TrEMBL record:
Residues 277-302 are annotated as: Disordered. SUPFAM superfamilies: (Trans)glycosidases. It comes from Mycena indigotica. Keywords: Signal. The keyword Cell inner membrane does not apply. This is Glyco-hydro-cc domain-containing protein.
Length: 331
């Protein structure tokens, strides 16, 4: 192999300078489905490469980052901003080149975007469907996990009468049992026969039962994330949430950041930098399977390069890949 890392970097440098200044480095792959629900404190989540994208429930792309930004049309209240000629969705597309856009937030919830399926279909046809002409994929309105959610999506598709092209189903889930989460995703997948994005989920009891402890959450995150990483049809997911403990409006133990904005143990677990601290998890949420992780002892990290050689060979591969991608974009 005569092309060394240095040579490759020498080729790459002028190529990158002549490439599109706004093109984004991150691509979402089967090992980087994880995203961030929120737009701040993002850099530290990038150290393992497991996180590749983020969204902010709107058009505001937050702090500067090379993570892929996914805009969302939250609901009726955002239509004026969405259609603004200078700061609306077209300006965001020009600046951030999103590959996907998300539809409305929890449409069947009165306290959220609160849309009838017909209103949802009308909004979709007016503000979302036309964007597909630019090659952008569209995610369904994301229902909450109340039983009305699946029916809302079915009624929405009926109201669309073939006029809404949904490229993937987005959904939210809040509960305490990982087995139920997996069943829920399987049901949506088999019902709609589309890829799934889980754009919010957390260990949160909305049914008057006990709230999850930190070990319960670590276990539920581990089991649900492992399931989604292993399913081709789960394209992306974002835990709720990428907030500081004091800013989270549900069980604060679901936060991935301390009040100083640093990754806590759950945040480190989410990106694969720390083993889950499940010791003492209660039966809640563990399901009946035998695949329960055995606590936080002995947690080596799978898959991270362990010495300088593997770093430089992986950097060389990365450099080759960047040259190829850059040439492809140029010509
Ligand atoms: C965005 O641009 C397209 C043309 O590419 C145009 O048809 C559409 O009306 C614009 N949408 C908004 C909301 O400005
Ligand atoms: C789940 O936990 C096990 C045991 O610590 C670990 O090997 C595995 O990588 C974890 N999976 C995820 C997706 O965090
Ligand atoms: C989790 O769900 C599974 C499947 O319904 C059930 O067998 C198990 O008892 C549940 N665990 C708890 C603690 O509710």
């Amino acid at each position: 192999m005569t092309l060394t890392l240095t040579t490759c970097l020498l080729f790459l440098f002028p190529l990158l300078i002549s490439a599109h200044p706004t093109s984004r480095a991150t691509t979402v792959t089967s090992t980087s489905k994880a995203g961030l629900a929120g737009g701040g404190d993002m850099a530290q989540f990038q150290k393992t490469g497991k996180v590749s994208w983020y969204y902010t429930w709107g058009l505001s792309s937050g702090e500067d980052t090379d993570l892929e930004f996914v805009p969302m049309l939250w609901g009726q209240k955002d239509v004026a901003g969405w259609t603004d000629p200078n700061n609306g969705i077209n300006a965001t597309i020009a600046a951030r080149k999103p590959t996907a856009i998300l539809g409305m937030n929890e449409p069947q919830e009165k306290g959220q975007s609160n849309l009838t399926p017909q209103q949802g279909a009308d909004m979709w046809k007016t503000y979302l469907e036309p964007l597909r002409a630019q090659g952008i994929r569209l995610g369904s309105p994301a229902p909450s996990s109340a039983p009305s959610g699946k029916t809302w999506i079915q009624d929405f598709l009926t109201a669309c009468a073939g006029g809404c092209t949904v490229d993937f189903i987005a959904l939210h889930w809040y509960d305490v049992n990982a087995t139920h989460f997996i069943n829920y995703l399987n049901d949506f997948h088999s019902t709609f026969n589309l890829p799934i994005w889980v754009t919010e989920w957390a260990c949160q009891n909305f049914n008057n039962g006990p709230q999850c402890t930190a070990p319960d959450i670590a276990l539920l995150l581990n089991q649900t994330q492992a399931f989604m990483d292993s399913q081709d049809w789960v394209e992306r997911y974002a835990w709720y949430g990428t907030m500081r403990v004091g800013d989270l409006n549900i069980n604060s133990l679901d936060a991935m950041l301390t009040n100083d904005g640093k990754l806590n143990d759950l945040g480190e677990q989410y990106i694969g930098a720390e083993a889950p601290k499940t010791s003492g998890a209660s039966p809640i949420g563990t399901g009946t399977g035998g695949a329960r992780p055995t606590g936080s002892g002995g947690g080596g990290l799978p898959g991270l390069p362990g010495n300088a050689d593997s770093y430089s060979s992986s950097w060389l591969k990365t450099c080759f890949a960047l040259v190829a991608v850059t040439l492809f974009q140029l010509f």
